[in-house]
Amino acid sequence: MSNANSSTSSAPTYDYIIAGAGGAGLSLLHYLLASPVLSNKQILVIDQSLQKTNDRTWCFWEMGDHEFESLVHHRWEAISIHAGSFSKELATSPFSYKMIQGIDFYNFVMTAAKLKTNVHWVEAAISNITEINADHIHKEVLLEWEGGFAKAKMVFTSILPFQMNNLASATKFDSNNKSATKLPFLWQHFKGRTVTFNQPVFDTKTARLMDFNVPQHGATAFMYLLPINEMQALVEYTLFSDQILEISEYDKVLNEYLAKHYPDDTYTIQHEEIGAIPMTQQVFSNYKAPIYPIGALGLAIKASTGYAFQFIQEQCKSIVAQLEQGLTIQTNVHNTRHRFYDAVLLHILFYHKMEGAEIFKRIFAKNEAASVFKFLSNTSSLWEDIQIMRSLPTRIFLPAAITVLCRRT
What residues contact residue 9 under an 8 Å CB cut-off, 6+ apart? Predict the structure, then answer.
């Protein structure tokens, strides 16, 4: 145990410590400060860097307005799917597909929070999080960093053993953990560019959600093209696989794709983003109350797709509601039925039982976009789920489902 532990009585004490000021940590902070019951609690936010950059773009679909509607950078009312000769455009109604830029979200939450005298900030790398005074009555948590420490009744941490916006960090974690679990583990890894052309080239109404007509690298790979206006778009090469590529490979495919689709036009690169998101039901932490994992660490990411933003909001709102009511904190955000579907789809992808391009082509070819969105956002009914699953061949789906069920018993 560290030296700080011997003098915990002198440690500054907070109601809550939020470890990690990324999407999950700042979402939780936002909902805490919006709560009429909790808004004046003493809160410490700690992160190794509080100087935020536009390191990611969150996209999600929803009906109606969102908690962060004012931050929506663009929205689309139609999507398109492309695989081989198959090409289909689908209206998203009653959903809209929306984009929020990371920097806008960070600035929005942090600017408001920095006006609050009960919110405290530390920029440092955390060295240890330990439960102390575990007498089942007065539990506390000691959080340490170089040069300091603090205590809290509860700690909410989103700090992963790797950085999702750093491919080298993710690769190192992957190489160290190959045998850590028998559960399927894929990376959703990507590189994206915001490009601006010298003349109008894009249909701004339609998001090219999945174009599988790109190098697959023995995995599930697609291009993602989101037009922001007629001259500008986010173009992202995304793969679901167990191996992360060299950066030059993403660039090669991006260059070839843009040259193929817009051969007579020139563009400039406004911004680039790169990252790796875990697609798994593997548990990354063994924390227990009063230390709670949130965000990707708390399994908020949907394992079969990598979508996270809406699930992080759901998780953080639920935590705050439980705190307000004095309930035992439960951080689960994916119910049993949808976790099962995720496990089955992951199994099929991980063991190459069916190519990802074919899976998503069939799902979108045989169903309305709204039905697919409900399924992928865990809001579908059992009947709707059955219709989606019927899109896949029984000879593929049934053995995978049985394998997953047997694994759980």
Answer: none
- Report the sign of the C-alpha dihedral through residues 355, 89, 54, 259, in that order: positive
In 3D, which of 233, 223, 213, 219 has the Cα closest to residue 254? 223
CB 80 within 8 A of CB 206: yes
Q: How far apart are CA 83 and CA 151, in angstroms?
A: 53
**Residue entry with tokens 């063991």:** 351
Structure tokens at 216: 């697959």
Are 74 and 108 contacting, i.e. CB atoms less than 8 angstroms apart? no
pLDDT tens digits for the chain (409 residues)? 444 444 577 889 999 999 999 999 999 999 999 999 999 999 999 999 999 999 999 999 888 888 899 999 999 999 999 999 999 999 999 999 999 999 999 999 999 999 999 999 999 999 999 998 755 667 899 999 999 999 999 999 999 998 888 888 888 887 666 545 578 999 999 999 999 999 999 999 999 999 999 999 999 999 999 999 999 999 999 999 999 999 999 999 999 999 999 998 899 999 999 999 999 998 888 899 999 999 999 999 999 999 999 999 999 999 999 999 999 999 999 878 899 999 999 999 999 999 999 999 999 999 988 999 999 889 899 999 999 989 999 999 999 999 999 986 5
Measure CA 108 to chain center.
19
